[in-house]
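User: Please run a holo structure prediction.
Assistant: Happy to. Please share the sequence and the ligand.
User: Here you go; the ligand is MRU.
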Amino acid sequence: MKRKGEDFRTIWLKPGDPGTVQIIDQRKLPHDFQIRDLQSYQDGIHAIQEMLVRGAPLIGATAAWSLYLAGLRASASNRQSTVLQAAIEIGAARPTAVNLQWAIDRVLAAIVDTDDDDIVRVLRAEAESICNEDIEISRGIGRHGLTIIEEIAARKPGETVNILTHCNAGALATINWGTATAPIYFAHQKGIKVHVWVDETRPRNQGSQLTAWELAENGVPHTLIVDNAGGHLMQHGMVDLCIVGTDRTTRSGDVANKIGTYLKALAAADNNVPFYVALPSTTIDWSIDDGLAEIPIEERDTTEVSHIYGESDGKMLAVNTVPTQTPIRNFAFDITPARLVTGLITEIGICAATKDGLAALFSGKESPSGKQP
Ligand code: MRU
């Protein structure tokens, strides 16, 4: 994934300043590319809650770097306890993406037997590993997802493969490459003709602001559509394949993702369009079975629904579109039941969205999530 032709990551340690973690303020895209400094774990919590960073894998990586900052800023005598307290606060920043708690658990496990004077080094190494591994995970998803696009391309030689995606499960949601977008980038680089239908993804418009920006920066043909257009396109044979990301997938293959994903899966099922979910194994919650009953769905501030945000004359503006007395609810995610999912694209292969499918794929394999079925 490139910006202005240069490879980039979404989170990194500031060169020459190990006390500062840097991120892209995703709230400002596509109008402005602003880099922000995180200097405390509280800065990290703010970045997650206010969605300067978002997307399940990047939320996890930000949690890891926030724990590093907590350890770094703590006095030598109370490093362990400061990091443990920070872990509790960071873990409450957003509820749905399981990567947040996964990253915290992994970092805490790494320091459990570490001497106080070595904790900062271990915290940094762990955060760096999580980021490096995430890039390899995305590449794995890209390689496996590419085979699906190749099969479709082979069935319609010379024609374009049309892929619909929802929200941003792109490079910006990970450290690089993305999950849903990795197969698309791989296909594009291989010279396969792809075109992406980008759902705008109200209320925060991760599609129009982030996915469209990423695809444009990388020269991938795409078209922005309103969230309600997908069903119409599928009815008219204009979508060959849907690929979306996920914030948490149960061991049975139920998928939590950005609100509206479920409706796309319903439309895909009604029109025989394959509906794939791309996910790193870090997003699988092996401890739960039933997505509807067991995955907490984040409700966010109602101004995200009442207001439309955008840029005018170089300034970010928020415009109210709703009568002030109208009650609003802002559900950020929904659950797509496994029965509507054609397959799960992971870094180690593709499987059916079933308990048996996931168990067989991960059985006996080293999963980066550290947990086996
Ligand atoms: O609220 P967000 O922007 O964090 O939601 C992001 C999504 O729903 C993504 O599809 C999901 O995190 C997968 S990211 C690879």
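Residues 2-133 form a domain with the Four Helix Bundle (Hemerythrin (Met), subunit A) fold (CATH 1.20.120.420).
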